[in-house]
Amino acid sequence: MNIFPNESGHPPRIMLLGGTSEIGLAILAALGAPADTEVILAGRDEQRLAAAGKELPYQVQTVPYDVIATEHHQAFADAIFAEGPLDMVISAAGILVPQEDVERDVQRAAEMIETNFTGHVTSLLAIAARMRAQGQGTIVVLSSVAAVRPRKANFVYGAAKAGLDAFARGLTDSLHGTGVRVLLVRPGFVTGRMTAGMAPAPMATTPEQVGAATVAALRGRKPAVWIPAPLGGLAVALRLIPRRAWRRVSK
Questions:
Q1: 105 neighbors 156 (Cβ within 8 angstroms)
Q2: Is 43:26 a contact under the CB 8 Å cutoff?
Q3: Which pLDDT belongs to residue 7?
Q4: What is the residue-wise DSSP string for 99-145?
Q5: What is the biggest distance separating any 2 CA atoms in the chain, rounded to whole angstroms?
Q6: Which residues are catalytic?
Q7: C-beta of residue 208 within 8 angstroms of C-beta of residue 55
Q8: Model pTM?
Q9: How far is CA 162 from the centre of its chain?
Q10: Range 223-244 burial, b when 16+ CB lie within 10 A, else e
Q11: How many whole angstroms separate alpha carbon 74 and alpha carbon 72?
């Protein structure tokens, strides 16, 4: 199924929030959108954004965006839509701070929650309202298997992802029937820049594998996708483990 039906006649217009995200860029690369597609890479590091844009086969522009500057997100969304309709937004901003660091410095915990949860909420609420008004659009939200049952080894990160996952499910229901769809992406351990130096977990994937699976889910009109697919069954099992046993195994 065509991801971009192009009913309006304009080239597809896509924005990546967290414009240097390895997974977000892999999704863009896997889309196979027309060469005249306009891609907006939104982030804080202009040099890295520009370098990432050169690797994409689209018409790329970069814009300043700070996921934790929530007071600016409404104006940011208004400015993006003032330049034309937006067909897709990929919400991929995220950081992973070790649990021992957030326990030692609680401000690091606040930064991770604001980056992985709060900033997504404020940005996507503003964007969803504009997409609802235009009557079409797609929102891709990057959650995680960590949202299923936070482990003691990373429960602050897991709590932020659990909040984001719940928000995305509620947003999906609120947009039903408006022409705007939400795809909730739940990968497991992804080898890459964010997880460098960590031992890969079972069923680990790569950004490219997440990108391909996300695009397949978009074409299949799915509301959510586990990557790899067996994680969906594992998630059910994780919820059933008794707490006493979970304390022993959730390292």
A1: no
A2: no
A3: 55
A4: HHHHHH-HHHHHHHHIIIIIHHHHHHHHHHHHHHHHT-EEEEEE--G
A5: 58
A6: 157
A7: no
A8: 0.92
A9: 13
A10: ebbbbbeebeeebeebeeeeee
A11: 6
* Residue ranges of domains in the chain, CATH in brackets: 13-249 (3.40.50.720)
In sequence order, the 6+-apart residues with CB closer than 8 A to the CB of 31 are: 3, 14, 37, 215, 218
Is the CB of residue 186 less than 8 Å from the CB of residue 161? no
Alpha-carbon span 26 to 32, nearest angstrom: 11
Which are the contacts of 147, defined by CB distance < 8 A and separation ≥ 6? 158, 161, 162, 164, 165, 186
Supply the pLDDT for residue 107.
Answer: 97
With pLDDT > 90 as the criterion, what percentage of the chain qualifies? 75
The helix/strand/coil state of 86 is coil
| pLDDT tens profile 102-131 | 999 999 999 999 999 999 999 999 999 999
Q: In the structure, what pLDDT confidence band is assigned to residue 197 with cuts at 50, 70 and 90? A: low
5 upstream amide cis, omega within 30 of 0? no
End-to-end CA gap in the chain: 41
Other C-beta atoms closer than 10 Å to the C-beta of 15 total 23
